[in-house]
């Protein structure tokens, strides 16, 4: 039996050619002999009825009987089998253990197939050692024989398939938790390695990877470090983890040209992919500088690229077991383990353009991908937000205005989404950073700058920083009126936002005037059924409620709510529709139409919980308003239960407020109104 270990060959076609010449392994001699003086073959190890070259059986091999059985079954009816897996997954150990266990083969030859010339030389050496007749005849084919099997180990599943005559490869999985525990125990003799939370967490961090576990154990033994100390250091930061994964572990079963560290072992795979499939290497590099979990497929695809090219590149990375496709969900996403991510980043530092190139690439890709913060894009934001948070950390290494402006766009749209989600502090920080970049590069009157300034003004308003909010908004309104005109869509948005800020100061006459102006302009320019016109009707109704025009307010509010439900761009459950429903509820409560107010209040609460969250400011205000209604419909017990929940959630959200400072329901509603509105 011949065991090939194909790792980093750069002349793959030659290796395939050499292996084709070795379509069958040697017919073994009647007795194993020592090679002639100077021959590189080592002394063989006796094992039962056969000779295994050149390593003894590993007494500490972690049992993997299912893999052994599958190898045996796969060899039924075929001469070649490739076992594939990530570098360091234990392919060599499994191959060696299989050779020792099996009674089918008298002799095993262990061959490092790193290049075609090396294969040719080692087979010539073996033909001499086995005294194959005709080996010295110049025109004889020393490769031809009649019996045996070839077991190939490789990191590349595509190469494995080719070398095994298109037969399916056998993929080696990572160790199970129990197997990983046993391996750590055997590598740390005399240490306490019984199952504990600390041990299991360490093994999880090491991805249950045999080489990583062996490397960690060697480090602990050489440096007299406990598991607890090692794990603590490992989790301190990525630098600590990187240094520990560089620790060199010598293994005689590995090619002498190959490293025994996890990171250096994987760098061989990265280098090969970079040569044979540059697009796959680019994808891996980009993935390494994003959040390593759930990376959307479309984030990796270039606009001009075909789906087939993306599929091939991703297939290469999966064939090397460097990434995994996530199961379930709608769109395809991919993930990589922390060790792979850090190893790739470490490898990038050795490439000509380094990691900075990929920081720029991450900013560019996301700036072209992130949508607006509107409600309709909430699902997309669920996919992209973790990646934007990572990429924004690269702004400190920005290599020019292109990077900075791309980052400013990501900051602005992320702040927009977070504002929608009620994450005001984070939206505030991102808005300020984006505005600083855009003002410096684009100037104060550029529309991108004005948009960010308008968004920041809204954020200030939600944080009850009314003075700062009004100042920013007035600057935006003045600039847009001068450059775009009074009836421009964006100018009217600025006027509407200013009216909202004035409402926080209870300047209701001024608010009513502004909102009527917005409504008339939108009816004229957008039409009565446009979503922005519908919202203008609801906003006017809110102002009329506070100016004592209760009948007009109720009429406008009912019309706005029904129009929002019927609008194709809004519909039942949309946050803007909920806004009209909240206004209607306020007017019904003011008119003391309690049964109708309860009906609309419960309806609003169902949609707030579904479309926002249980503890979103708008949801809390809706609950508090329902408490007021229930108390006026005689449902005191339910009202008190909801009140306690709302108060607790409010205090949890705003920890600076002591419970004793909330004087009652009306005070709580006022506070929530400020927080929500």
TrEMBL record:
Alphabetical list of InterPro entries matching this protein: NLR-like, P-loop_NTPase, TPR-like_helical_dom_sf
Gene3D superfamilies: P-loop containing nucleotide triphosphate hydrolases, Tetratricopeptide repeat domain
Cited Pfam families: TPR_10, TPR_12
Protein's name according to its UniProt entry: NB-ARC domain-containing protein
Lineage, broadest ranks: Eukaryota, Fungi, Dikarya, Ascomycota, Pezizomycotina
